[in-house]
Amino acid sequence: PHRQGRPSPVPRVLAIAGSDSGGGAGLQADLKTFQELETYGTCVVTALTAQNSLGVQRVSAVPATLVADQLESVLADIGTDAAKTGMLPTADIVAAVASAIRRHGVDRLVVDPVRTATAGTALVNDEAFGALRDILLPLAALVTPNVPEACALLGVREDEVRTLDERESAARALLGLGPRAVLLKGGHAAGDECVDVLVGADGGTRFFAAPRLPTRHTHGTGCTLAAAAAACLARGHSAAEACGTAKAFVAAAIARAVPLGRGAGPLWHAA
Ligand code: PLP
């Protein structure tokens, strides 16, 4: 398989993400996940958040030129076998990321189309989300939206994407935006099971199910799933294998989530 840069003694994975001071989501979740899956994690910081179990108190974007410099530092020397993007707060940052990914030939890219925190705070502005759809999705090996993110990308209402059939159709429609595979997650849908739908350019559909656990300590699930999938792609696994492993990793992390703080506690990232 194609490897960016020189051959590496260990699978390398790059997180391009925002910092969560609370340690449950964002680049902290990504790096913990990479380590647990025995890959070498690097990280390009796109934003700082002051955040805890109660919510996001403050957000500040990193200048796009500094994001570009971090990308160059990592990719021109260490290289990477896969990358994942999380919080990309401005359109300039999205453009810097797309440019570096293209220039360095990173072909195993997982895009987690982050928009708002579960607590409701916007993490990404509308222009950035539009830029992600238009210039980053066509570069993605896998995109991992939840239902609200999928609806925002497609410009449809959430009540139009409720049943499993509707979710499969929405996932197929997202393939039209250019990614090679789409994992539409079922965490925001109803039901005792959380069923994620994977569709790929090969035409097949796969479903990944896990019981819905009765806990509110699910902070960081989206970041963790995309990070685990990227670690698997770095190992050379297919998108389907990567999604299966990532789903199991997140289910275990939710089952062991720790009720730290007074609000929604973080996952326990352990393989
Ligand atoms: N903080 C950062 C930096 C994130 O990237 C994300 C999600 O991607 C969140 C917070 C939100 O996490 P959650 O919605 O799981 O609370």
TrEMBL record:
Belongs to the ThiD family. Keywords: ATP-binding, Kinase, Nucleotide-binding, Thiamine biosynthesis, Transferase. One of its GO terms (biological process) is thiamine biosynthetic process. It comes from Cohnella nanjingensis. It holds the Pfam family Phos_pyr_kin. It comes from the Bacteria. Its EC number is 2.7.1.49, 2.7.4.7. One of its GO terms (molecular function) is phosphomethylpyrimidine kinase activity. Residues 20-267 form the Pyridoxamine kinase/Phosphomethylpyrimidine kinase domain. It catalyses: 4-amino-5-hydroxymethyl-2-methylpyrimidine + ATP = 4-amino-2-methyl-5-(phosphooxymethyl)pyrimidine + ADP + H(+); 4-amino-2-methyl-5-(phosphooxymethyl)pyrimidine + ATP = 4-amino-2-methyl-5-(diphosphooxymethyl)pyrimidine + ADP. This is Hydroxymethylpyrimidine/phosphomethylpyrimidine kinase. InterPro entries: HMP/HMP-P_kinase_dom, PM/HMP-P_kinase-1, Ribokinase-like. Pathway: Cofactor biosynthesis; thiamine diphosphate biosynthesis; 4-amino-2-methyl-5-diphosphomethylpyrimidine from 5-amino-1-(5-phospho-D-ribosyl)imidazole: step 3/3; Cofactor biosynthesis; thiamine diphosphate biosynthesis; 4-amino-2-methyl-5-diphosphomethylpyrimidine from 5-amino-1-(5-phospho-D-ribosyl)imidazole: step 2/3. CDD domains: HMPP_kinase. One of its GO terms (cellular component) is cytosol. It is an enzyme of class 2 (transferase).
